[in-house]
Inverse folding.
């Protein structure tokens, strides 16, 4: 088979591969989008659970501190009575010191409680935010599920159709050429390039003049020395300057 006959077959295959690549990229993107949405929902569920857990733990600590503060306040009352009953300076100094110490302990607990309240508030806000984001995403996922499944199915069908066409197209290509094509395709999405003026239209770099001269006979395929694509000569289209006439 002359390369003149092989060129359109090779171009047809490259065209199919190009469309297949687009469909596959699109599929990967859609699947990735759904996957990302699902994993965000999962992350939010975990975040809400751990947030609620830590709120529970902080509330427990706060309640314990409040209980302690109440008990100490009762002791303060007793110390005050003791101070009132003190019969000499020594007793009065001791009772005053006890009173001061107890007041300080109560103040410390009150400070702790306030700090914890701030943390609890913050944790509640973050759990609430996570909840509303979670509900929104959940709705999105459920609402989109049908539409998403449908467009996935459509693209799957497109891919299957293109894969069928590809199988037919591959059979028309000379095996040696096909092997080269496939090996280039592992590095370049489009493995072929044409030239009409000596510049490879894959990488836009000029091929050596001797090589270009030989190519014009259209006896065999070449490989672009720069991008390694399968390179072939096609004469310029009749209106190659956009009809400017110059
Ligand atoms: Zn090239």
């Amino acid at each position: 088979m002359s390369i003149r006959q092989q060129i359109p077959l090779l171009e047809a295959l490259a065209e199919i591969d190009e469309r297949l690549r687009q469909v596959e990229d699109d599929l990967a993107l859609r699947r990735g989008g759904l996957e990302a949405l699902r994993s965000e929902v999962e992350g939010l569920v975990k975040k809400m659970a751990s947030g609620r857990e830590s709120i529970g733990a902080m509330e427990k600590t706060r309640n314990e501190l409040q209980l302690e503060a109440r008990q100490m306040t009762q002791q303060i009352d007793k110390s005050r009575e003791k101070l009132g009953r003190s019969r000499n300076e020594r007793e009065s100094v001791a009772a005053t010191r006890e009173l001061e110490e107890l007041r300080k302990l109560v103040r410390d607990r009150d400070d702790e409680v306030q700090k914890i309240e701030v943390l609890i508030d913050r944790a509640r806000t973050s759990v609430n935010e996570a909840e509303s984001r979670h509900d929104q995403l959940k709705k999105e996922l459920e609402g989109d599920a049908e539409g998403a499944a449908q467009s996935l199915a459509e693209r799957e069908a497109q891919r299957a159709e293109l894969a069928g066409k590809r199988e037919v197209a591959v059979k028309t290509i000379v095996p040696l050429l096909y092997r080269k094509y496939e090996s280039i395709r592992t590095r370049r999405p489009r493995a072929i390039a044409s030239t009409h003026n000596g510049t490879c239209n894959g990488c836009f770099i000029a091929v050596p003049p001797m090589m270009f001269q030989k190519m014009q006979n259209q006896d065999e395929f070449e490989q672009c020395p720069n991008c390694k694509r399968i390179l072939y000569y096609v004469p310029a289209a009749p209106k190659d300057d956009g009809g400017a006439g110059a």
In short: Confidence is low (pLDDT under 50) at residues 242-246.
